[in-house]
Amino acid sequence: MNDERRIIAADDVPSDGTVLFTVRAGTETSEAILTRLGNGTVVAFENSCPHWTDVRLDKGSGAYVRNGELVCQKHGATFQRDSGYCDFGPCEGAVLSTFDVTVADGEVYLTDDEFSFEHLGESGDHDLSTGSRIDFTGS
Ligand code: FES
């Protein structure tokens, strides 16, 4: 495996939360989240709720997991962690976009040919000054 594609040790990926990382495709960066399933498999999803795509599931300290499902804290949509399928909430039936990742020798690698691994953590492309889509100007 290519070291440039190593994301994190598999043991450091939680099963009751997520780890945030940033990927790049050309000049564009996007955020992704890793979570570990009960069988040890690690999966990666885009860090964006299909209901309001500017809402991040993981704001930097791990997405909320309840009853084994990822939860969007904005309006409570729940997503199956193995497939990303939304089984409850305003975007029910939608599916989180995935990134290809592989575990080898206890390490998680990004194996998605469309993206390169940038770094762990936030992309820095979003505005951290507001926690809402509606700012004080009303726009
Ligand atoms: S923004 Fe995620 S459920 Fe509405």
Q: Give the helix proportion (percent range).
A: under 10%
Strand content: 35-45%
CATH architectural name: 3-layer Sandwich
Compute the separation of the termini in Å: 47 Å
Q: How many beta-strand elements? A: 12
CATH superfamily descriptor? Rieske [2Fe-2S] iron-sulphur domain
Shape: globular
Number of helices: 0
- Poorly predicted tracts of residues: none
Q: Would you list the SSEs in sequence order as H and E?
A: EEEEEEEEEEEE
Computed structural class: mainly beta
Bound molecules: FE2/S2 (inorganic) cluster
- Regarding CATH, which class? Mainly Beta
Q: Summarize the main sheet.
A: 5 strands, antiparallel
Q: Reading side by side through the largest sheet, how are the strands ordered?
A: 9-4-3-2-12
Overall radius of gyration: 15 Å
CATH topological fold name: Rieske Iron-sulfur Protein
- Total discrete domains: 1
Report the average pLDDT across residues: 92
InterPro entries: Rieske_2Fe-2S, Rieske_2Fe-2S_sf
Domain Rieske: 5-110
Keywords: 2Fe-2S, Iron, Iron-sulfur, Metal-binding
Protein name: Rieske 2Fe-2S domain-containing protein
Describe the protein's topology.
Elements: E1 6-9, E2 19-25, E3 28-36, E4 42-46, E5 64-66, E6 69-71, E7 78-80, E8 86-88, E9 98-99, E10 101-104, E11 107-110, E12 116-120
Antiparallel strand pairs: 1-11, 2-3, 2-12, 3-4, 4-9, 5-6, 6-7, 7-8, 10-11
The structure holds FE2/S2 (inorganic) cluster.
